[in-house]
Amino acid sequence: MKITLLVVLGFLIFVLSTVSGGGASLLLMPLIIFVAGAKSVAPIMTTGIAMSSSSRVFLFFKDIDWNLFKWLLPSTIVGSVLGARLFASLSSDWIQIIIGLFLVFTVVQFFQKKEKVRERRIKTWHFVPIGFTISFLSGLIGGVGPLMNSAYMNYGMTKEELIGTRSANAVVLHISKLASYAYFGYLTGDVLKYGLILGVTAIVGNFFGKKLLGMISELIFRKIVITTMVVSGVLMLYKHWDFILQTIHAT
User: Fold this and answer.
1) Distance, CA of 22 to CA of 224 (rounded, Å)
2) Using N-to-C axis directions, what is the helix angle for 189-213 and 24-36, rounded to 10°?
3) C-alpha closest to that of 30 among 138, 134, 142
4) Distance between CA atoms of residues 66 and 42, nearest Å
5) How many structural domains are present in the chain?
6) How far apart are the first and last CA of the chain?
7) Angstrom distance (rounded) from CA 179 to CA 166
8) Which of the 8 DSSP states describes residue 61?
């Protein structure tokens, strides 16, 4: 029953994730908690998303911005290894709340004019500190959702370039995390079993997601990406609502 649920809902999540440019991790968290428990979320999700990202690299290979990828590569490896090293040793509640607030406030991009977006387009070298920060947080808490999509869009990418480049970087990120989780003893037989099932499901979902992606315009894609970021932020805040209330009452 649990495996069937993982396959069916996982398929739908990865179809949506392909069309929206990411966000699978936040939608997968409650599903994996139900199937395998909270302690297994990060390694199972990392295994599945590593396979998912690899299939997207194959599907969107010609759209990858390899120059940007080279800038991201070193900081992604260092950040993910450091984050995975601290995995399960630090409280991640406040980190996820801050990320959730950031994602919610990306709604302002709905109301910005194109001229203003062009004026503040980020440079290639900006992705070095951005990549390190995102990778570190991903290694630390398991997943940060579509947190980096705002940077990709402000860099001026098309929908295919965003997904292809994001996926190439995600392969490096998640393989680095997997190696770290394995070294520190977080990968077990059950983790690998559920992770591989999720990964195969993701590959099928990505194929159908690419078909749907070709049917939408750049404008609609941008709106879907921003909406997904905001919804992901709301889900993060909702997940930690009890912690927020306890903190407020304690002050």
Assistant:
1) 10
2) 150
3) 142
4) 28
5) 1
6) 44
7) 20
8) G
- Cβ neighbours of 153 (radius 10 Å): 23
pLDDT at 62: 95
Pairwise CA distance, residues 99 & 235, whole Å:
11
**Token duo for residue 109:** 């991009």
- Inter-CA distances, 124 with 151, 215, 224, Å: 10, 29, 24
Which tokens hold the place of 103? 């994602």
8 Å CB contact between 14 and 201? yes
Site of tokens 């996982």: 10
At CB < 8 A and 24+ separation, what contacts does 171-175 make? 171/50, 171/53, 171/54, 171/57, 172/72, 172/73, 172/76, 172/77, 172/80, 173/76, 173/80, 173/135, 173/138, 174/46, 174/47, 174/49, 174/50, 174/53, 174/80, 175/50
Tens digit of each residue's pLDDT (9 = 90 or more) over 28-85: 877 888 888 877 888 898 899 999 999 999 999 999 999 999 999 999 999 888 887 7
Assigned token pair, 169: 């970087």
Show the tokens assigned to 208.
Answer: 């159908």
Per residue, the 3-state secondary structure of 105-158, as one string, reads HHHHHHHCCHHHHHHCCCCHHHHHHHHHHHHHHHHHHCCCCCCCHHHHHHCCCC
| Residue range of the domain that includes 11 | 2-250
Q: What is the DSSP letter of 215?
A: T
Which amino acid is present at 214?
Answer: G
**Rounded Cα–Cα distance for residues 155 and 150 (Å):** 9
Give the closest residue to 154 by CA, choosing from 118, 102, 115. Answer: 118
